[in-house]
Structures are given as C-alpha cells and as structure tokens.
Design brief:
Blueprint (H helix, E strand, L loop, with lengths): L1 H18 L1 H20 L9 H11 L3 H9 L15 H16 L1 H7 L3 H32 L9 H28 L4 H27 L4 H23 L1 E7 L2 E4 L2 E4 L2 E7 L6 H20 L9 H8 L5 H22 L2 H10 L11 H34 L9 H43 L1
Helix pairs in contact: 2-8, 4-11, 5-6, 5-7, 5-11, 6-7, 7-8, 7-11, 8-9, 9-16, 10-15, 10-16, 11-12, 11-13, 13-15, 14-15, 15-16
Length: about 450
C-alpha cells in the first residue's frame, strides 16, 4: 500500500512538473547560466603559458590555502581563468556592508527605507566588490608573475590588464548569480559554488585513485575515505532534513451557522537554520586575507614579521586556522539567522492571524520563546557544521587527498542540492494549488450562469 501510494505521488509530481511551464523555464535558465559559468572557468587570461601554468598548479594548488581557494572557485583559480575570483569578492563585500549597516547611522536609516534603501545598499556592495576584486586581481597577478615561466611578458602592463580581467569576470559572475535569484530558482551564489565543486569531483576522484596507485594512499585509507564520504553525506542529509516543530493553535470562530478555525498547525524550524552560509562566509573571510598576506610576504616562512606568521598559521591544515574557522562558523551562523529571521515579526504575524503557541502569551512572550528556540537550534546547528567541516578536513589533510572530499565541500553539495529540491517541490505545490483554484473559479462561473 505504501509503495503504491508513493508511486501515485511520484506520478502526480511528474505530471505536475510537465504542466508547470514557468518552473521548467526557470530550471532551464539556471542550467544555461551554469553552463556559461563552467565555460568561463576554462577561458584563461591572456599572456599565460598553459604548460608552465599546469606545472605550477600541480605543485602549489593541491593543498593549503591556495588549494582550498581553488576548491571554492571550481578549479578556475588553478586555470587562471577569467572567473578565477568567482563570487568570493562579492561575498566579502556583502559581509563588510552588512556589518556597517548595523553600526553606521546613515546605513541604518537606509535599511529602514524598504526596497529603495535595499537597492542603495546593494549598489554600495557592488562598488566594494569592484575594489576587493581589483585588489585580489593584483595579488593573483603578482603570484602568477612570481611563478617561473608562467607569464609570457611580465610587467606592470600584465598586472593591470590581468587585474581588470579578473574584476570584470568577478562582476559577471555576480550578475549571473543575481539573474539566477530573479529569473531562475535557488540561491545564485550557492548554486555557482555548488556547480564548481560538483564539476571538479570526477577529477578529484581520478587524483585520489592516482595517489592509491602510487602508494601514497593505502587501500585501507582509500576504503576509509570512501566510508567517511558516505557517512558525511548521510549525516548531512539527516541533519538538513531535521526540524523542530512549534505548535500553533487557532481559536474556533462562529460565523453565522458555520464554525471555523480551531485547527492546530505546526511551524517547522530547521535544526541548521543558517544552512551553508556559515562555513562559506567564515572560510572566505579567512582564506582571502591569508592569501593576500602570503603574497605580500613572499618569505613568510623565514620572516620574523607578525603578519608573515599570521599568513603561515592561516593554513587549512593548521590548528589555528581550524580554531578561527569554528569561531567564524558560530559567529556567521548566528549573524545570518539574525539577518534573515526576526522572532518579533514571526510572533506578530501569528498574532495578527489569531494564532498562539499553547501555554505562551501572544506578542512579546511568543517572540521571546521563538528567540530561545532559535538560539538553541543555532547552537546545535553550528556544532554540527563545525564537526562536519573541520574533522574530515584534518583527516584528508594527512594524506594529501583533494579538498573536494572534505567536509566543507560535501556539506555545500548536500545542502544546496536539498535546498534546490525543496524549492522545486514548493513551486510544484504552488502550481498545483493555482490549478485547483482555477478549476474552482470555472465551476463557480458555470453554476452562476446556470
């Protein structure tokens, strides 16, 4: 019976998807943008020797800070492509602008202006993105010039046109992410990072098997790695599907001879309220400055300068990096949830609808209750994300396994995939509901004519 019911629901979902033309267009649009994005990650900047670049990437971009940055860019960093900076400058700019929006009075006033203020803040974010991208572009061009034989004609001209190319590429990636948000389905920035990681997984798999053939990775370690990946994915799916249901009751109402209301609903809150934004924001805020410091202090290993030591310790395999990473996950997870969810507005909306949480007075008491529940969920979610991101990374760091099999990349893949699936399902439900409403209106019109 259960299998028949599941088959029936599956057939209904397929039928609904076939009729949802707008959803199909949105999904095709997203796929088209992702194809353009992946093509861009394979277009190198001018003035580069591809053979020398491949040797440099093989020697320097398999582990450490550069290896993790390369993972977030979907291999574009190693190929010195026009999209080498990916969405990273925009993420950093968004963090800084949002922090300023909570502390600078003029930006606080803009936030209160609604949609117009939001557009102005987004404009400031883009301006800052250009500045960060230019700075990162100059740093990356310096790193390429320092590599033996990679740049065909080194000099200030190469630095300038390379920085401009990287900046233009980064802004085009930002534009693609915004187009996905408005004309597609899902979170544009997360989907672009997701696409880069997924596209590079087969290559990472080949590299891992090559390590096993060379003897650098034992059969026991290879089996252990496979088990770890499966366990991480299963645990991520379980935690991302876990919810805390808050009971919301609505009183009975007498309208003429009819009685309405009295039903009990449940408001689901995810255990991981922040999703994947915590580790993405924390890692980018650590990796980008670390990369800049390493380029500024080329002899960091032997220098006594404090900044060079910071560049050395901010390595994904070092305990200092992992400690700061965990702290960043907690901070940014709480910050992101506070930015996206307001307990007072949630409580006010339920109060306006006539609902209440059993045993709790509507209004301020309900808001306080929501805040307490969300805080507990965020603590659990942050511990879970920290465990997933840090421990597997420390394990694979011992064997030189590509970052794509680390906890952070697998968490991003699972979380973005589940989020996209839930958005598609929600769109299908909305489409079916609209269809039912149209049928009801048609029937009502026929009865009126009769």
């Amino acid at each position: 019976m259960a299998s028949q019911r599941q088959q029936k629901n599956s057939n209904a979902a397929v039928e609904a998807f076939g009729k949802a033309k707008d959803l199909q267009r949105r999904i095709l649009f997203v796929l088209g943008v992702l194809i353009v994005f992946r093509m861009g990650t394979h277009i190198p900047i001018p003035g580069i020797d591809p053979i020398a670049l491949a040797k440099f990437s093989q020697a320097n971009l398999q582990e450490g800070i550069l290896g993790m940055l390369n993972m977030f860019t979907g291999g574009a960093f190693a190929r010195a492509s026009i999209f080498a900076l990916n969405i990273i400058p925009y993420i950093l700019a968004s963090i800084f602008v949002q922090i300023l929006a909570k502390t600078v009075p003029s930006l606080q006033e803009l936030e209160k202006e609604g949609e117009a203020g939001k557009r102005k803040i987004n404009q400031y974010t883009r301006y800052l993105t250009v500045g960060i991208a230019m700075m990162n572009g100059f740093m990356l061009s310096s790193a390429l010039m320092a590599a033996d034989g990679v740049v065909l004609h080194p000099g200030i001209g190469f630095k300038l046109h390379t920085a401009l190319t990287f900046t233009a590429g980064a802004m085009f990636v930002v534009w693609m992410a915004e187009q996905i948000n408005t004309r597609g389905i899902g979170n544009g920035a997360s989907l672009l990072i997701f696409a880069g990681i997924v596209a590079e997984l087969p290559k990472a798999l080949i590299q891992t098997f090559a390590l096993a053939r060379e003897g650098s990775l034992s059969e026991f370690a290879l089996i252990g790695l496979a088990i770890m990946v499966v366990v991480i994915i299963a645990f991520c799916v379980f935690m991302e599907s876990a919810h805390r249901k808050i009971t919301v009751q609505y009183p009975k109402r007498q309208v003429g001879a009819r009685q309405s209301g009295g039903e009990v609903n449940h408001m689901p809150l995810k255990v991981n309220l922040a999703g994947v934004m915590g580790p993405i924001l924390a890692s980018q805020l650590l990796l980008a400055p670390s990369f800049m410091l390493q380029q500024f202090f080329a002899d960091s290993a032997g220098s006594s300068n404090v900044a060079s030591y910071i560049a050395m310790y901010l390595n994904p395999s070092h305990w200092v990096f992992n400690t700061l990473f965990v702290a960043g996950i907690f901070i940014f997870s709480f910050w992101w949830v506070a930015l996206m969810m307001d307990p007072e507005k949630m409580a006010e909306r339920i109060k306006k609808e006539g609902g209440f949480v059993p045993g709790i007075r509507p209004g301020a008491r309900t808001a306080k209750y929501f805040d307490k529940v969300m805080t507990r969920l965020m603590i659990i979610g942050s511990v879970y994300i920290s465990f997933i991101c840090v421990l597997p990374q420390m394990v694979i760091g011992q064997y030189g396994v590509p970052f794509y099999f680390g906890g952070t990349s697998l968490l991003i893949v699972v979380t973005v995939a589940l989020d996209s699936m839930s958005r598609v399902q929600a769109a299908l439900v909305a489409h079916r509901y609209e269809g039912l409403m149209k049928k009801a209106r048609l029937r009502g019109g026929r009865k009126a004519r009769i």
